[in-house]
Write a structure and sequence with these properties.
2 copies of one chain form a homodimer. The first copy, chain A, is α/β, with parallel strands linked by helices. Chain A is 36% helix and 11% strand. The first copy, chain A, has a single domain, classed as HUPs (Rossmann fold). Chains A and B meet through strand 3, helix 3, helix 4 and helix 5 of A and strand 3, helix 3, helix 4 and helix 5 of B.
Chain lengths: 227, 227
């Protein structure tokens, strides 16, 4: 890549996407952050995403409102459903949001193609994760193939590249890499059911995986949990 | 399929999507229409889509607002660009909207999965078309593969099926089939630069292809053109 290459970073304000931003920045990309507001239970993560985009010198940060919650189908977007505690299981949990990463990446592709940006970074991970199908390498490979044949840039032989630097790392490895790149994880928010004061629940899937990561990394967990 | 199977129909209010709705209806599906408002130059097509959904007894019709126009990159969504007249060419014209069908189908997939709907119909056509890459069979096949591995239904072996009944038909064949299924093409709107009275320009890509279709079908063109 040339020094001036731009990259779009899908930035939720969580641990994984912030580390992904730090990685893209460390590789010399000029970063454009895109965050989505889609009826998730709280807006803390969007606020944090804005702050993190600033702290990693994103050249732009866009908040895109998309009506995912209008069709429901997930405990994360339907306030009548209860978000469950973490459980060891191979089943896809009810926090799965139908087609979420498909929709996020599709928007990012449209944005990238319209603006002449050739790279997209997404912090999906298929090791310490909730088992969502749209976080796995098979999905990313199929999505890449789809845009190779379904976009103008793709058919002209200059397809936009989807980067997934975290996909095969453990949560502990992600945290150690992020710290080496200057990520302050106290500023990131991962919990699926943050309370009104912005405190994490400690028990949901996302908290459990995050907490395990800090233990594995040998780093004090900087998360503010409910008492 | 059982008599009660539901299908989502991507319904723009144009000639192709209306014929696609008529086909799905004729096959016995209970049809759910989805239309998108994305900053296209006029809203006539959305109004027509509503009326057509009613006339083909859709059990639901949803209008989804999505901010595609915020990233620009197309003559259809950027009012500072002029929509060109039809030209014989192999180049992809500037009316191409980056990732439009990718985004539309992604939303439809989320909607279908959340609501337990197994079929999506889209009126893409790769014969009499503007050369958009996201209208071709290669794209649809790659999109199908992507959702087979990227959705919960897909990995559970019950993937949502994308139907493209028009993909290899000429415009004349589409019109003849639609008429046999009761489509009143006077109610459909295809023009890229409809005027304020809802009259079609006669000269854009979409008008040229539509007009050619009526000639080929041997049917009087019911479109209201500007004088």
């Amino acid at each position: 890549m040339s020094v001036a290459d731009k990259a779009i970073i899908l930035l939720s304000g969580g641990l994984d996407s912030t580390t992904t931003l730090a990685i893209a920045k460390s590789k010399g990309y000029e970063c454009v952050g895109i965050s989505f507001s889609y009826g998730q239970s709280h807006h803390f993560e969007v606020e944090r995403a804005k702050e993190l985009a600033l702290s990693f010198q994103c050249i732009e940060h866009h908040l895109v409102e998309i009506p995912i919650s209008s069709f429901g189908g997930s405990a994360l977007t339907d306030p009548t459903q209860t978000i469950p505690d973490y459980q060891e299981s191979n089943a896809i949990p009810i926090t799965y949001v139908p087609a979420r990463n498909i929709i996020f990446l599709s928007f990012a592709i449209g944005w990238a193609e319209a603006r002449g940006i050739d790279h997209i970074f997404i912090g999906v991970n298929a090791v310490d994760y909730s088992g969502y199908p749209d976080c796995r390498p098979e999905f990313i490979e199929a999505f890449q193939r789809m845009i190779d044949v379904g976009t103008k840039k793709g058919v002209e032989g200059q397809s936009i590249k989807i980067h997934t630097p975290l996909i095969s790392m453990t949560k502990g490895e992600i945290i150690n890499l992020g710290i080496s790149l200057g990520v302050d994880y106290a500023k990131t928010v991962s919990c699926y059911k943050l309370n009104e004061d912005g405190h994490a629940c400690r028990t949901c899937d996302s908290c459990a995986l995050r907490s395990k990561g800090f233990i594995e990394a040998g780093i004090d967990d900087p998360t503010t949990y409910v008492k």
